[in-house]
Amino acid sequence: MKKSTRKIINHLKQYIGLEVVRTKPTQGLIWSGDWSHTDEPIIILGFTSDGCIRYRHSGRHARIFGNKEDTLPFSFTDRNWITYKKALRAKHNVLNKWRGKKIMRLRPTATFGDRSFMLDNVFTKAPTLISASKYHMVIEHNDVGLEGDKSLLRADYINPEDWVLAE
Q1: Tens-place pLDDT, residues 57-115
Q2: What is the distance, to the nearest Å, from the Cα of residue 75 to the centroid of all Cα atoms in its chain?
Q3: Which helix (H) or strand (E) holds 53?
Q4: Mean of the pLDDT values across residues 123-138?
Q5: In whole angstroms, how far apart are CA 44 and each of 11, 12, 28, 86?
Q6: Which of 25, 48, 59, 94 makes an SS bond possible with 52, Cβ 3.0 to 4.6 Å?
Q7: Phi first, then psi: what are they for 130, rounded to 5°?
Q8: Which residues of 109-121 are buried (b: 16+ CB within 10 A; e: fewer)?
Q9: Residue 8 host element (H or E)
Q10: Is the four-CA dihedral 19, 51, 155, 35 of positive or negative sign?
Q11: Would you call 5 helix, strand, or coil by DSSP?
Q12: What is the rounded distance in angstroms from the CA atom of residue 65 to the CA atom of residue 86?
């Protein structure tokens, strides 16, 4: 194993047994990388002999995928991980001035053109901002059937210029 990989693994060992999320996509062959695990936490269990991350799903995905152990591709072995608890902390984002208020997006996300939270149909209600950090945003849904559910949004949703108050 390369020395640089060993350094990254030594850094990531602090997260073993904790819920973590990614702060950025992987540096992959796809133009935007892989955004997996940026909005749903996983629990790091350890590492394979070739430096891949062994993990288990947590949160909503644990109910879907069960309690089985899985392995991430090597492209995920980097320093772009933080604890889920830290991702939920309201810090370093001007959007926090609207905490507890209903907000809406003005434009689609730059990465995939996602139009979620733009309120462009009569069945969609504005979400309530819970917190925003440097890499993540937590919202509470107000749509019928989702009322009270909270979601963690990844980095391509946190640009303050893309949001306005909906009230």
Answers
A1: 998 888 888 889 999 999 999 999 999 999 999 998 999 999 999 999 999 988 888 88
A2: 17
A3: strand 53-57
A4: 93
A5: 13, 9, 21, 16
A6: 48
A7: -95, -50
A8: beeeeeeebebee
A9: helix 3-12
A10: negative
A11: helix
A12: 24
The values of phi and psi at residue 32, to 5°, are -115, 5
Strands of 60-134, DSSP E: 69-71, 81-83, 103-105, 128-132
* Residue 27 pLDDT > 80: yes
**Token duo for residue 25:** 């996509």
Residue with structure tokens 């559910």? 149
Model pLDDT, residue 157? 93
Cβ atoms of residues 163 and 103 within 8 Å: yes
| 142-145 contact pairs (CB < 8 A, 24+) | 142/102
Whether residue 18 is predicted with pLDDT greater than 70 in this model: the reply is yes
**Beta carbons within 8 Å of 107's beta carbon, 6+ residues apart:** 118, 162
pLDDT at residue 146 above 90? no
Q: Residues 152, 129: contact at Cβ < 8 Å?
A: no
Residue 21's pLDDT band (cuts 50, 70, 90)? very high
